[in-house]
Amino acid sequence: MPGAQSDRMIAGIDLGTTFSAIATVNASGVPVLLPDRHDANVFHTPSVVCIDRRGRLAGEMVETLLEDDPGLNVCRFAKADMGTAQTIYTDEDGFGYPAHAVSACVLAKLKRDAETKTGEEITRAVISVPAHFNEAQRRATVDAGRLAGLPVAGVVEEPVAAATFSALTKAKDDRTLFIFDLGGGTLDATVLQSTPEGLYVLATEGSENLGGRNFDEVIMDIVRGQYREQHRADPGHDREVQQRLRRLSTELKLELSAQGGAIATRPLVLAGRPLRVTVNRNQFDLAAAPWLEACQEVCERALAAARIAWQQVDDLILTGGSSQLPCVERMLRQLSGLAPERITRSHPRAAVVYGVALLAEQLYGDKPTQAPPLLQSVSTNELGLRVFDTQRNERIFEKMIGKNEPLPVRAGKLFYVDTRKSDSVTLEVLQRKDSFLPVETLGEHLFAGLPRGHAARPLEVELGYGRDGRVTVRAVDVDSGLSVEGEVKDEAESNLIDLRQRLERLPLLG
């Protein structure tokens, strides 16, 4: 009960693009959402942040402030920039914050809400990430938790969490599950095998630029078109106009998603001029067609990677708030050809956080749960090194581990290095989400102390993914046996300390 002290609370967190949530497992082994400390009926926190000289504010209170001041300096969609060092938000003092620092404000609010509700301190936290997140994005998610003061034990992939929760209500025999997880800014399409023993991930594909905000922008474009038609002018693209458009479009999208929501109408004042907006479902569906086709393409890639057809899928499970759009469900029905009873949607906005809480308790707690254990994950990114190709006379990506390989997995390759001028070699580890996308660097590893004087000294390099997807590197000088190994590390501790001190000087408001 609230106010009662306990040794620990283990929490699962869904850090979403547009909304975030936190849950724990109760004494009966059932996952429960923890509400906003100001409103026991609110269980999802908008992932929107405002930082000024007064302090940090995240969630619903920011949305409330925007009603009175649409020009307020806020940051949304920080998740889209996780894993990059670039500034995505600048406060009134000119201080720039990277995505994990902005996300830390949302996580700090969730932590305070949960601890206020339960009277317990969070001693372990697990945070969800999209399956297609690379190592840098996963590290940034952990760093966001650390900046928020959370004891982060690890991350879990969103479709795995959704499947964990969904499997509680499914038959315990062997079943092939297809998890379609369409959130506010990301899509994961994951194929799993559910068995009486546990879950096996077979393949996963995804997109980090495909989600609810794309469908919001479809409506934003429709509204801009109606404004131009009525006023013979463009409403502009300043902060206030954009935020009014975003809020209106989200409301209209939700109305069109509701049962019987064939048409949605709203009056508003935009750029100082009145406008009555009307959007019908057919108009929206037609404009959203390119994004629906992109969803379809991700699904087909996932099936191809798992080497199965739709006819072999037993259950298509829809999760994520944007999966509730009627046009999305209709597209999936037509694409899969599955009978309606084989397409299910259970708590689409909570399935992930429920699953994360179950997995966190299963891994670190002692409360009984009926959650199936995760027995196998797969690699979600290609992994390799940057090497110099003498024939092409350029540096290239040398792939050593492919996507959708069962974890853990390791791969080694023999390279020849020139030590005539130096006793060291730099190993740059790279990941790539798909063969048609650019590579992303995970960092450089220095291997020093090599015997000098060789034009082509043999060096055996081994890269690996652990069961949790963490990247390891090992290099061995074949002739001498000298070796070096380690994990790809988090952001420099000094950088995190500076950010933490900056955030701690700003009180968490609300």
**Large-scale geometry:** globular
- Could you give a short account of the major beta sheet? 6 strands, mixed
Assign the structural class, choosing from mainly alpha, mainly beta, alpha/beta, alpha+beta, or little secondary structure.
alpha+beta
Helical residue percent band: 25-40%
Mean residue pLDDT: 91
N/C terminus separation:
23 Å
List keywords for this structure.
31% strand, 510 residues, 26 strands, 11 helices, single chain, six-stranded mixed β-sheet
In short:
The protein has helices at 60-68, 99-118, 135-147, 158-166, 212-231, 239-257, 281-287, 289-306, 326-336, 351-364, 493-504; strands at residues 9-14, 19-25, 31-33, 45-46, 49-52, 55-58, 89-90, 96-97, 122-129, 152-157, 175-182, 187-194, 199-207, 263-270, 273-280, 315-319, 343-344, 374-376, 382-389, 394-401, 409-417, 425-432, 440-447, 457-465, 471-477, 483-487. With 510 residues, the chain is of the alpha+beta class.
Describe the structure.
There is one protein chain. This protein is of the alpha+beta class and 510 residues long. The protein has eleven helices and 26 strands. The chain has helices spanning 60-68, 99-118, 135-147, 158-166, 212-231, 239-257, 281-287, 289-306, 326-336, 351-364, 493-504; strands spanning 9-14, 19-25, 31-33, 45-46, 49-52, 55-58, 89-90, 96-97, 122-129, 152-157, 175-182, 187-194, 199-207, 263-270, 273-280, 315-319, 343-344, 374-376, 382-389, 394-401, 409-417, 425-432, 440-447, 457-465, 471-477, 483-487. Strands 1, 2, 3, 4, 9 and 10 form a six-stranded mixed sheet that branches. Strands 17-16-11-12-13-18 form a six-stranded mixed sheet. A four-stranded antiparallel sheet has the order 20-19-22-23, with no helix packed on it. The longest helix is centred in the first third of the chain and has 20 residues, at 99-118. Residues 1-6 have low confidence and may be disordered.
